[in-house]
Amino acid sequence: MSSARDDFWTIRQVYAKLNKSQLDHSKSQISDAYRRLTERVPEADSHDIGDEGVEEIIVTAPSEKYQHTKLTDPKSYIRLLKLQPSQKQELIVCELNEIGLEDSVEKYDALSYVWGSPGNDSVKIQVNKGSLDIGPSLHCALKNLQYTDRPRSLWIDAICIDQTNDWEKNCQVPLMREIYSNAACTVCFLGPEEMTTPALYDMLEKLAKERNLMAIEGDWSEHRSTNALDTLPAMGNHLPIRPLSTDLSKRYVGDTTILAMADCSWWHRAWTVQELILSPSAVMMTGRNSITFENLCAAVDQGLDTQIWGPVFLGFILNPIVVPYLSIRVLINHCRHPQQQRSPAIHLLNLLIHCRHRKSTNPRDKIYAVLGLLRHIFPDAMNLESSNQLDIELGYEKDVAYVYRSTCQEIILKTGQLDILGVCPKSYLTGLPTWATDWSITDRIGTPLMQDSLDRVRTTHATKNTELNARFSDNGAHMIITGQELTSVATLAKILVTPIQDTAVFRRFLDPGHPPKYSSKLKPELEALVETFEPALLRALSWWTSSPTHTPFPFLVDFQRNVGINTIIACYIIYYWLLLLLLLCKRVLSIQLTGLTALREALPEVYSIGNTFLFDILSSFTTLFAWESFAAAEAPKNPGIDSDDVYWRTLCAGTYKKETLSQTREIYKHWFSLMQPLRTFLIYFPWFKEHFPRAGIAVYMYATWHTYGEFWPYITCAYERRMGRTENGWLCLLPREARVGDVIVLVKGGRMPLLLRMEEGRRVFVGEVYVEGIMNGEAFDDGSCEDFEIR
């Protein structure tokens, strides 16, 4: 079980390595600058010199633009790109030829990459005898994929499919499954090489080798997570039963070079997950550095099991470093080990939910990009002659709202359930009904209540497993359902917002390859001084807190040996205030060069370092404490439940350990007691939250020094929702968009109660509701049902 002590030790190692890296980086920069000044070495002219000092040969692209020729049959033929070799920085030259799909097996490598923003400057390449404009990201990939001594056959969607021909795209996109399955290898290009890339790939290869050796030499399964990587919420519990300790774990703990890989857009695109999963062999590539996906998995799993990287921070914040990787692993497990008793429609819904956070340039691809995966699981899913077939037709000429609405309608009809309504964020897409999902929205929303907080399918059914009676108007704009109106919303509490660790923010402050940006008001000379002096001081601070041979404080040698929390907090405060003093001195020095304006702007900058992120974390606590007060203000009247249990059972949305109430109650009580010091602190010192949130975090870490408790994963369903009370006194979890006066309805065939609102004389859908005491049909009366038309 993780604790604040574990997180503190990891963070301590992160900053120790960071300070050394920044110091080395600064020394290198200054040495290079000094050498140029003393030796008067001119900087290389990029227009004259190519790689390794070879004079660049400039080749102009043909003036005539390349035009794709029609494929013999777009449903059975594809184009392959032959990338010509090059030893110099010259124009990329390619040949494009068609080949039968059946004849192409293992004759090419497929490329998986991120297209980039449409507004980016294009780069010309030569295709056959014409020129073709491609994006900078694809140009970078081709440069790194290019052999020096032989051609290379590739399949690249942006070139091998005529992107100006919607009819051809409609024929070729359904072939993606076969194209990536037939490839000899899929190269997943993450981006250009950065300063830390070689060290990162070297670390990953060593971790993979260590993992594979351990698997050969002995049984180490006891160290592995108790939770299989088959659910997204459960990935937060990827904590070893007994963490491994190896030479590499001691060497790499706190390493931040993996941030560069985790921050790549490739992990967050709609198409890339299909391209990876459908490939028999995949290679991850950054610049010219590469590692097989199999070895990447072994390396990251080893890092997780040895706690080089932890999936959760402070007990409840998902670590963005590992989330993209784990989400891919979840989908791989779903596709390779499907539950065959489920229908294609249910699998499609699960795939769409798991890929909802992924982005696509064309919003229609949020649907189309997962159809290949669906056909990988159910080959006949799109076969019109199959009994379970889905009537989803690809069409890039179709309106986005129509694509989303018709897909939602098909899933509702084929599943006979309303579970898809749990994935309906507020949308402003013209023509999209409120009951249809806008898949282009990637913002964080509440977890669909079809599953509990541990991502287990609910066994309860609010309408006693009745049959769905959903109908749709001729134009598809309205859905007619049959249900029973229960009560309306009377009062609302605040929204429990999910605290998010932003990978980009992490990189800005932690990645030595991206040193912090200083104020433009600082003169270059002073900026160089600060960039040299600051890492040196930070390294000195690291030295006296961690050096096993030179520190004058022996009790700080090993943070794993029951170091007193008061000592740790004292060291942390000294470290933090020395850093602030240094930064303040830096800004004060700039007054001599920039005037009093710099001081006025510098003080808030220094004061607010990290405050925004920590303020957001404390806001989660204050919201939870406000919910406690909200629930205690009036005894809940939920049917058949002890009023003392209603709050915590609502908070966890009916998620119980091994389906046992008593065990879960004890877990909650322990967690509640752990929060008491912070709860008291925020009551007596509320202004600390806004002006000095670090103090609140220190109190929380003090209280959870030995354990965070087990209850945090149980409240996953509460995030992005708000607590509420109905007119008849029920305590409930409501969607974040809920308003006073909204009506709670039980709909025949629906697993969850729904929240409806009257707008302009018509009902609209707001979201799902959790009401403890009525979730298994206790309040449902078939005889009281009536039709509701939702637009």
From TrEMBL:
The chain crosses the membrane at residues 563-585. Pfam families: HET, Het-6_barrel. Residues 108-275 form the Heterokaryon incompatibility domain. InterPro entries: HET (IPR010730), HetReg/Transcr_Mod (IPR052895). Keywords: Membrane, Transmembrane, Transmembrane helix. Signal peptide: none annotated. PANTHER family: ANKYRIN REPEAT DOMAIN-CONTAINING PROTEIN 39 HOMOLOG-RELATED, HETEROKARYON INCOMPATIBILITY DOMAIN-CONTAINING PROTEIN. This is Heterokaryon incompatibility domain-containing protein. It comes from Phialocephala subalpina.
